[in-house]
Design a protein that fits this description.
Helix 9 links the parallel strand 10 and strand 11. The protein has a domain of 228 residues: Alpha-Beta Barrel (TIM Barrel). 32% of the residues lie in helices and 22% in strands. By secondary structure, it is α/β, with parallel strands linked by helices. 50% of the residues are buried. The longest helix has 21 residues.
């Protein structure tokens, strides 16, 4: 079997609620989900999810190649673009192709990807994470009550703007998930909105409020090894980061500085990237946790690594036109037996029903506010 071409399309995910974080919120609750379909001369398609706008620059590295060589082809793609670098959309294209190659590899073996990767168990433990910053208190409670009904005992909320609100909401979810565990795991994600001193001060306030926080996620900028290490030393909770880092070379300074306690990997960066990050973490006796994405494709890889602490589960529904062989129950993901990633794409439905995008809009979660990290008090704006 050889890779011969690709098709690229975009479906949408209707979350049924506003979604976002401290940097911005998509009020419509409708976001784009890019889908890559990798074609072969055997008539079997491989599926990859995630932004891949730079695919034309990367595809030459895999065209005519056997998809069973997925890890080697990952390295070939990185080599293919090494002069100009592989960050941003380029790495997104590498990742989407990589995901599709692994999908093909498992389909050729006529087994689900979790089997191909060597997992012994189809269950992947997870934690609830609702991209909830834009919800009022009632909607916030209703959302996490639905997650609790699926058996979750761990939960992450979005915060970072108002510490009093964060404390109130952490106590609220502690009560909700207390129905499933006497000590539910509580995580707070502030999406790089604090500086180092703010992080240490705010975490002390959370501790003083009687909240046993499991981890603080991205308290300062993703590359700030010194600041992340200082936060880790200054707080009882773990520091989790890594979802926006692309390639082991970006993790190395943080690992060397003991700046990360829970090593995260973005699901949008592919299967091979996650595997290598997990191994780098395992060598240092650190847990790894994949950040969530539509359809939870990295759950297959997460099932096969020895140091996986839990995968982020962001929603209980799938994007339009994607039939995904998974069940979200018992506080995690049960992977199915459909070959590959277990994703079937209904291209006709996507063409008919696709809604508009809001995730990448000018006020959305991907745009860092000018005042991020510059606030002295909550909602006071920037120093001028």
């Amino acid at each position: 079997m050889k890779v011969t071409g690709y098709r690229s399309l975009v479906t949408s995910h209707d979350w049924g609620r506003p979604v976002g974080d401290v940097n911005g919120v998509v009020a419509s609750g409708i976001t784009d989900v890019p889908v890559l379909i990798l074609e072969t001369d055997a008539g079997i398609d491989g599926i990859g999810l995630g932004q891949h706008g730079d695919i034309a620059r990367v595809f030459g590295a895999v065209e005519g190649q056997d998809p069973r060589a997925a890890p080697a082809l990952y390295d070939s793609m990185l080599s293919h673009v090494f002069k100009s670098g592989h960050a941003g959309q380029t790495y997104g294209a590498v990742a989407a192709i990589d995901m599709a190659l692994w999908d093909l590899k498992a389909k050729m073996a006529e087994e689900p990807l979790w089997r191909t990767l060597g997992a012994a168990d189809r269950f992947v433990r997870g934690y609830a994470s609702g991209l909830c910053h834009g919800l009022d208190d009632d909607a916030f409670g209703d959302l996490y009550a639905r997650f609790a009904e699926r058996g979750f005992t761990a939960v992450k909320i979005k915060g970072g703007r108002d510490i009093a609100r964060d404390i109130r909401r952490l106590k609220q979810v502690r009560g909700i998930f207390g129905a499933n565990s006497s000590a539910p795991a509580l995580m707070l994600d502030v999406n790089e909105s604090w500086n180092c001193k703010q992080a240490i001060r705010h975490l002390a306030e959370i501790e003083a409020a009687g909240i046993d926080l499991t981890w603080i996620e991205e308290p300062v900028r993703r590359w700030d090894a010194h600041g992340l290490a200082a936060v880790s030393r200054g707080a009882r909770c773990a520091v989790a980061t890594g979802e926006n880092l692309t390639g082991l070379e970006q993790f190395a300074p943080l690992l060397d500085a003991h700046a990360v306690d829970v090593v995260q990997a973005g699901s949008v960066w592919g299967i091979t990237h996650f595997q290598r990050v997990a191994i780098a973490a395992h060598v240092r006796d650190l847990p790894v946790s994949p950040v969530g994405y539509d359809g939870n494709p990295i759950a297959h890889a997460a099932a096969a690594v020895p140091n996986m602490i839990g995968i982020e589960v962001q929603d209980l529904n799938w994007p339009a036109g994607l039939d995904i062989d998974q069940e979200i129950v018992d506080g995690g993901i049960v992977l199915g037996d459909r070959p590959g990633l277990g994703i079937v794409v209904d291209e006709a439905r996507i063409a008919r029903d696709r809604a508009g995008n809001g995730w990448m809009s000018s006020g959305g979660p991907h745009r860092r506010p000018r005042e991020a990290g510059l606030r002295l008090v909550p909602d006071a704006g920037a120093i001028r």
